[in-house]
Every structure is written in structure tokens, then in C-alpha cells.
Amino acid sequence: QQPVQSPQAVILREGEDAVINCSSSKALYSVHWYRQKHGEAPVFLMILLKGGEQKGHEKISASFNEKKQQSSLYLTASQLSYSGTYFCGTATTGNQFYFGTGTSLTVIP
Amino acid sequence: KAGVTQTPRYLIKTRGQQVTLSCSPISGHRSVSWYQQTPGQGLQFLFEYFSETQRNKGNFPGRFSGRQFSNSRSEMNVSTLELGDSALYLCASSVGGGGGSYNEQFFGPGTRLTVL
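ok -> C-alpha cells follow
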């Protein structure tokens, strides 16, 4: 039930791009993305709803494939501040909510 | 607006004891969710309350319970503590309405519980 994220960890140089994937075995109503820096609470990035609506930050983009129950988060022109652990969260049609396994992203100069 | 607050920030208990954690949501938010975060299991959903009613529940034993008051403040209780309950407990608030899991969640700083 917990969605699976890939990759588990990634190291980037400033300016490089990254894609983080999230895959669920359950039918989804929405996918959420959060970033958590070490020692801090998770911070909201984006929500993608069934039907195509999205709510989130302008500099973050993501996709949601409802049929495949998958979502991808696209980080472009990465900055040092992007470092942290990224979690997807999935709301199923049964109104259960699960966070993914997490992806550790490190951006180096 | 003030953010989500959680008290206490740190707790040390021994096996068999019980503990109560408190969460005050952002003013105007009616949904409060609780999560357990551990290095091995990641972020696990415990339950969600909306307008004093438990609306959703994760896969945790009955030792984990919660409640929400009329002012939306929420408490979480863990009885008969086990070593494996050591974790960071996070609460998150959202405006609610269509279901907390459908809205942006704002997280508190968490309560770090250590069970000896």
C-alpha cells in the first residue's frame, strides 16, 4: 500500500535536472509531493488531482498518470536549496493516505 | 498566521507507560492528521480527525488513539509503550472539507518520543 519511489537517492551538481518517480498499487484520487530537510518537518510542494488539476509552487512541475497510478516530480536547474528528502503521498479512492518510501536528493556545488 | 505547534517537543518514557501528545493546528484548519516517522518505516499515517470525528485510520494497533476537540486541537495517546514506538510523531493540519488527504498539509515540528 505504501507507494514506491525511485530512485532511493540521487546526487546532482548545481544546475542539473532530476526526476523522482512514485508508483502505487492502488487506484489514486490524488498525489502529493513534500520535501523534508534534515531535522525539519515536511513542506508541501504540490498536489496533483485526478482529472488533471494541479496546485503547487510555480518552480516545481510534476505529472500524474491516473491509469498507471504513477507520478513524477521534475526538478530542473537544481539549486543547493533543493537538497532534502522528497516524499510522495497518495490519497486512494478509499480515502486512505500513504507516504512513499522517500528519495534523498543531494545537490553539490 | 501561527504555524502548527506540538507539545512536548521531546519525551522519554519507559516500556509499559502511556503518553499523550498534543497538536494545535493553524487557526481555521479543521483537519488534523498524525504520522509516525522512523528511519526504517518512513512516514506512516496514523489517523485523521475532522470536526472532532476520526475520519481515516492507518494500520496501527489499538494502543494508538486520538481525539480532537471543538477548537480543532488534537491529542494522540499511546498506551503500553513498546521500544518500537520510539519515533518522531508529526501532526499536520489542513483546511479539511473534501478530506484532509486531499488538501495541502502543514506540518508541525514533531514530538520526538524515546522509549527505554
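DSSP finds no helices and eleven strands in chain A.
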